[in-house]
Amino acid sequence: MSKIESPFGGEFIPLDVLNQTITAKAVSDHLSSNGKPFDPELPNTIINRARKIFAILILTEKEDQIERLITENLTDDDLPLSSTKGGNEHTLESGRTPGKYFHAFGNWTDARIHEFLDKQWCVQAPVLGATNGNLVLAEKCPLPFIGTETRTIKNAPGGVIYQSILHSSHHEGPQVCSILTTMICIC
């Protein structure tokens, strides 16, 4: 899967690339490649509920763990995950639903868990639109901007206003041209 480097730091996989790459057929082919039988509904479950999870598993070469994670009801809506504070490092917590824990990572090495936690940010770039208002994003969350035309518009006491090009699959609302230039204030 091709990742794009954001001019604001980090890399992201655009949603259109994710949707074109992680299809039911591609998932089925991946699952079939290890020779183990799987529930024929699993590819559709992954597409509908865990496409980003599966992409992270591909990036970390742990696709064989998808059934275990799905069984524990881990979905894209639970991302980002984090290590539990003061607890078992092999138990991860949903960033969107505090108190929702996942123990399916128990047989992973510390290095693999850290790799998963690091790679998850590639699929976390937000969809932006006029109705977003003020978004509070994690420091590691990449912004879905592309190109080298990013420029500073204004430095202000509350932050910096930049102008950049927003990736088309991370924009919601009417798009009046093929290239959408957006201003963003980073505080």
Descriptive account of the structure:
The structure is a single chain. This protein is of the alpha+beta class and 187 residues long. It has a domain of 120 residues. Helix content is 26%, strand content 21%. It has 6 helices and 8 strands, in the order ββαααααβββαβββ. A 3-stranded antiparallel sheet has the order 3-4-5, with no helix packed on it. The chain has a 3-stranded antiparallel sheet with strand order 6-7-8, with no helix packed on it. A hairpin with a 5-residue loop joins strand 1 and strand 2. Helix 3 packs across helix 4. The radius of gyration is 18 Å and the shape is globular. The chain starts with a strand and ends with a strand.
Could you outline the blueprint of secondary structure elements for this entry?
Elements: E1 4-5, E2 11-12, H1 15-21, H2 24-32, H3 42-49, H4 51-59, H5 66-71, E3 81-83, E4 92-94, E5 101-102, H6 110-119, E6 145-156, E7 159-166, E8 180-186
Antiparallel strand pairs: 1-2, 3-4, 4-5, 6-7, 7-8
Q: Tell me the series of helices and strands, N- to C-terminal.
A: EEHHHHHEEEHEEE
Radius of gyration: 18 Å
Biggest β-sheet strands, sense, barrel: 3 strands, antiparallel
Mean pLDDT: 86
Number of DSSP helical runs: 6
- What is the overall silhouette? globular
- The helix content is 25-40%
| Total DSSP E strands | 8
| Strand order in the largest sheet | 3-4-5
Helix-strand makeup class = alpha+beta
